[in-house]
Amino acid sequence: MQRKRVALGVLGAVSTLVLAGFAAVDASESTSGATPRSKLTIMAPAAPGGGWDLASRESQQALRSASIVNNVQVVNVPGAGGTIGLGQFTEIGADPTQLMTTGTVMEGAITANRSPVDLLDTTPIARLADDYEVLIVPADSPYKTLEDFLEVWRENPHGHAIGGGALGGTDHLLTGLVAREAGIDLGQLNYVSFAGGGEVLTSLLSRTVEVGVSGYNDFRDQIEAGNLRALAVSAEEPVPGIDTPTLIEQGVDVALPNWRGVVAPPGISDGQRQELIDIVGEMVRTPEWADALNRNKWVDSFLAGDDFTRFIKEDQARVDAIIEELGL
């Protein structure tokens, strides 16, 4: 450019160094001058169509529609119960324009996959909502109720395959907890792990497995179309809009929420963290987010900042204890 070809002498050189210094400071504050209000990228550490992808895209829509953030993008990094995405996320640097969606499944995968990093290696921002698991069979299955299945499962645990997500994830944990409460030898479990709810559905409809376990929204369309029957939901209390009894209501004392939340990269400043907390706090108060909760049958469980950090620490310990107890 013409400006670069003009010799400005010593004063120009000094000015250039000063401006370069300011540019470096600005870059450390935010990538390419972007701020969380102008640009956000949300990583969904799973393939499109799963629970984290849905939560990420619902957040994207609410943030855009309510004009909280000008430009919101979602990127998918699937694999290993979210720990591949987690590993990449902790290496991107202190960029306050990045968020990652996370939840219970990742906690289990961190332990099961012996991940070198965990959620406390990120900067926790907020828990958003609780999602719930369902136990599913095809509509023409001989199992009309949960007890129908438990009866034959007790007789021959290994002879009845159950399909779900990643080893150590919420689906696996729920299967183990239900088996334990039903008096089934956990060493006899025949649990088949799949990459996501879509593969679980395929295996269920092809009769590769007898029972499927995944998030309610992975199966919702097929339930409403009458192709699948939900035997139980993993909530502590009945969930409005889900016409399926809880495990507890059916005499199995198990409840396991699948929470959804967002974290930022490690190393961002306290001010940048607070700005992200404020942004997410504004989002969860919008009509768009209220609509997302209603449509997806999620239960509001907003928790932010240090309270969310303490929750992660306690919940990871709880999940670790379940995995150890169940020998998963």
Provide structural commentary.
Strands 1, 2, 3, 4, 5, 6, 7, 8, 9 and 10 form a ten-stranded mixed sheet that branches. It is globular, with a radius of gyration of 23 Å. Helix 2 (51-65) packs antiparallel against helix 10 (287-296). It folds into two domains: 31-131 and 257-326, Bordetella uptake gene, domain 1 (D-Maltodextrin-Binding Protein, domain 2), CATH 3.40.190; 150-250, D-Maltodextrin-Binding Protein, domain 2, CATH 3.40.190. The model is unreliable at 1-31 (pLDDT under 50). Helix 6 (170-181) links the parallel strand 5 (162-164) and strand 6. The chain has helices at 9-29, 51-65, 83-89, 104-112, 146-155, 170-181, 197-205, 216-224, 270-284, 287-296, 305-326; strands spanning 39-44, 71-76, 98-103, 123-138, 162-164, 191-193, 211-215, 228-233, 257-264, 299-304. It is built from eleven helices and ten strands. The chain starts with 8 loop residues before the first helix and ends with a helix. Helices cover 42% and strands 20% of the residues. By secondary structure, the protein is an alpha/beta fold.
